[in-house]
Amino acid sequence: MKLSDFDFDLPETLIATRPANPRSSARLLVAEGDALHDRRVTDLTDWLRPGDRLVLNDTRVIPARLSGIRHRTSAQGAVQAKIEVTLLEPRGDGTWLALIKPLRKLKIGEEVVFSDDLRATLEAVEDGQGHLRFNCAGDDFDAALNAAGAMPLPPYIAAKRAADAQDMTDYQTVFARHAGAVAAPTASLHFDEPLLEALAAKGITFSHVTLHVGAGTFLPVKVDDISEHKMHAEWGRVSAKAAEEIAATRAAGGRVIPVGTTALRLIETAAREGEITAWEGDTDIFITPGFTFNVTDGLMTNFHLPKSTLMMLVSALMGVQRVKDIYAHAIGEGYRFFSYGDSSLLLPEAQKPA
């Protein structure tokens, strides 16, 4: 298939720069079989049934955007330069892979000061990215980063406004547990405690998995033939408990519905042999039309960028033309798009009457 098969015109006015408040008051477009229903996220209890299982990505977004100063003594005396850093992922040697701007103003061995408690030294440069070693680790690093860093808002929001203190709450799920993501699993941002309690009261169950969403999730597809695109790899884990819960739900006739494309990609990675099992590692699974889903019965997800890998994923689940119809409806009805936007519940098959 061609990249143009996943393109559409999106009015810029529909790009959300702040989330709905409260979270669960966002709009929800339910696509069930051939039907479309305009609802609210709070109406999930009407569309999910006892015995269904939601799979939640419990990754925690780190405040990965840092502003610092590099000091240097030159022939002209003391000089300094402002350095902007976006952390990408930790490396096995204890350094962090990072985007550094402007990279040319930082030499190997030089230190960038972000705060009184947080500093980093550039140890290497590879493929236009830096390897930074920080002055602290563990809980001390987490505390210093939380104090100095800002949330890594997606490029299409960051282009409109800077991250602020409100984003430290807004761009984090209420069930975030394991730090490591530099982008949020945004479909999960719609859940608050009252909604989780209402779903549980109806008999919907939950499984937690972890996939640390990387900055690569925003990388554009640059090839016209999508089969030539190489996905970025992201670390994830499906515990034995989560795998057993998902398998038991399917065996009992319940539906497994991941919340977000990250949770979907992870559980399908763990089920490539047909049955889901415990799994941990880096996944670069690329889901396009023709993909065989082994454990996914539906998907809750936000509205995605044109010509993105996520458009290809939802088209694999629902069908290319069906997704075009869904998005045309969403645009016509003024749904808000992308990370802070509204959501959809995609159910390929209509519910059979009781």
In short:
With 354 residues, this protein is α+β, with helices and mostly antiparallel strands. It has nine helices and 17 strands.
| Strand segment tally | 17
Oligomer: single chain
* Strand order in the largest sheet: 5-6-7-10-9-8
Q: Which geometry do the CA atoms define? A: globular
Count of separate DSSP helical elements: 9
Descriptive report:
Strands 5-6-7-10-9-8 form a six-stranded antiparallel beta barrel. Strands 14-3-12-13-15 form a five-stranded mixed β-sheet. Helix 8 crosses helix 9. It has nine helices and 17 strands. It starts with 26 loop residues before the first strand and ends in a 7-residue tail after the last strand. By secondary structure, it is an alpha+beta fold. The radius of gyration is 21 Å and the shape is globular.
